[in-house]
């Protein structure tokens, strides 16, 4: 931008140069203000809790194809008293041993106010998803023992809002472990034919 200012300034008159200086000064002041606000307020990461998981389907068939359908409940708390959070382009999906086993489900962009709680209940599913052979063996073994350990993930972008200032976008990565007892339906609540709702109540790891 400084080169453009010099170029315009050399064309006769210092008006363009002064405009460029004002714009650059404004950008610097805004950047310093946002940085100082960030340092002083020290924004806290949102807290995610995987409250429950409703299992509609979970079937592993040959050759290593997994069909699954869940509805999960995530409780999100903004722990900041003076900072709001914008959630942008967030997707929720399930993995097994670091392999994605469902399609990503989009969460609509949303804003969360100070000290506010939000509840998201996305449905995540995968139809005949090919599972790596070594994961299929491990998954079959877990199913035979009754317990399956999955990880519910949420990836996206967040922006922080302080007063009228809104920061740029930051990556958000959420990991929630879910231990589901598929063998004993009495550990959950039967909500329909072959549909069981399991309480998980696990706090998730959050990285921003």
UniProtKB/TrEMBL annotation:
It comes from the Eukaryota. Keywords: Membrane, Transmembrane, Transmembrane helix. GO terms for cellular component: plasma membrane; plasmodesma. InterPro entries: LEA_2 (IPR004864), NDR1-like (IPR044839). The chain crosses the membrane at residues 21-41. The keyword Membrane applies. One of its GO terms (biological process) is defense response to other organism. Residues 74-176 form the Late embryogenesis abundant protein LEA-2 subgroup domain. It is found in: Membrane. It is a single-pass membrane protein. This is Late embryogenesis abundant protein LEA-2 subgroup domain-containing protein. It comes from Brassica campestris (Field mustard). The lineage of its organism: Eukaryota, Viridiplantae, Streptophyta, Embryophyta, Tracheophyta.
């Amino acid at each position: 931008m400084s080169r453009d200012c010099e170029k315009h300034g050399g064309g006769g008159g210092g008006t363009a140069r002064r405009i460029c200086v004002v714009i650059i000064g404004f950008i610097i002041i805004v950047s310093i203000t946002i940085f100082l606000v960030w340092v002083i307020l020290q924004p806290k990461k949102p807290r995610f809790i995987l409250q429950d998981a409703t299992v509609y389907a979970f079937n592993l068939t040959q050759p290593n194809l997994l069909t699954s359908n869940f509805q999960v409940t995530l409780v999100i708390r903004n722990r900041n008293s003076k900072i709001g959070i914008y959630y942008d382009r967030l997707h929720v999906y399930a993995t097994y041993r670091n392999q994605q086993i469902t399609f990503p489900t989009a969460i609509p962009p949303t804003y969360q106010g100070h000290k506010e709680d939000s509840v998201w209940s996305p449905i995540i599913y995968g139809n005949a998803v090919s599972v790596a052979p070594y994961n299929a063996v491990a998954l079959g073994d877990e199913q035979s023992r009754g317990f399956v350990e999955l990880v519910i993930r949420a990836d996206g972008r967040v922006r922080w809002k302080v007063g009228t200032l809104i920061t740029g976008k930051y990556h958000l990565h959420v990991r929630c472990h879910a231990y589901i007892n598929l063998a004993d339906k009495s550990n959950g609540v039967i909500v329909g034919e072959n549909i069981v709702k399991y309480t998980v109540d696990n706090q998730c790891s959050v990285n921003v």
